[in-house]
Amino acid sequence: MIPYSTVLDLPVRKAIVIAAVVSATFLSSPEASLSEEQGTVVRLPACPAESNCVSSSFNEPPNRYLSPLKIVNDRDESFRRAVRDLNIRASSNEVNIVEISPSVGYIHLTVPGTSPGSLDDIELSFPEGGEIVNVKATARVTLPPPPFCIRKNCINGNMDQRIRAEKIANILGLPPVDDSAMREQAKWTPIFFNSDTVPGFDED
């Protein structure tokens, strides 16, 4: 299992200073989520219970889990390109950049939410020396999920946040880690038209 967390090879004192700066920035925006700091480990927090949220944390249940993104070149270069591409989109008002922290490889964005006038928070974490980008998308206004989902590749629950996280991934040009497996091995069947049999169900 891949540990989807950011491990920083920094002295404890420097890590504490970085965490304090990050926390102070977030505390100025009460609706934004806080990053957790434990010694030299900084990770995106878990999705709040009963929220419209998706995250690449392996602790999330299936309806809230989102594959992390795969870095296709150097981590630092990927971070620089992400900042460049997001700044271009910010200039056209497609996204709003809340915070960029190169020292910890962290980016916080907001995009329009599902509820009129609301926002969704998109958080990206580039682990130092890692090959993935952790992703989290959280709605500031929680709405009841649709009772069904028939669109191909749809996962019932928090689909709007999933689509927004995928849009940011497309802007960055970074594919999901499980992209090839989903294309080559996954099979999708609308639940209401599912004729697949359950192995062993008809056996005596």
**Tally of DSSP helical segments:** 4
pLDDT averaged over residues? 74
H/E element order: EHEEEEHEEEEHH
Q: Structural class of the helix and strand makeup?
A: alpha+beta
Q: What is the approximate shape? A: globular
Uncertain segments are 1-41, 181-198
Instruction: Output the CATH class name.
Output: Alpha Beta
Q: What's the CATH architecture name?
A: 2-Layer Sandwich
Radius of gyration: 18 Å
Approximately what portion of the residues adopt beta-strand conformation? 15-25%
Span of the ends, CA to CA:
37 Å
Helix content: 25-40%
In short:
The chain has 204 residues and is an alpha+beta fold.
Question: How would you characterize the overall build of this protein?
Answer:
The chain has 204 residues and is an alpha+beta fold. The chain has a single domain, classed as 2-Layer Sandwich (Alpha-D-Glucose-1,6-Bisphosphate, Chain A, domain 4), CATH 3.30.530. Helices cover 26% and strands 20% of the residues. The protein is built from four helices and nine strands. Strands 4, 5, 6, 7, 8 and 9 form a six-stranded antiparallel sheet that branches. It has a three-stranded antiparallel sheet with strand order 1-3-2, with helices on one face. Strand 2 and strand 3 (41-43) form a beta hairpin.
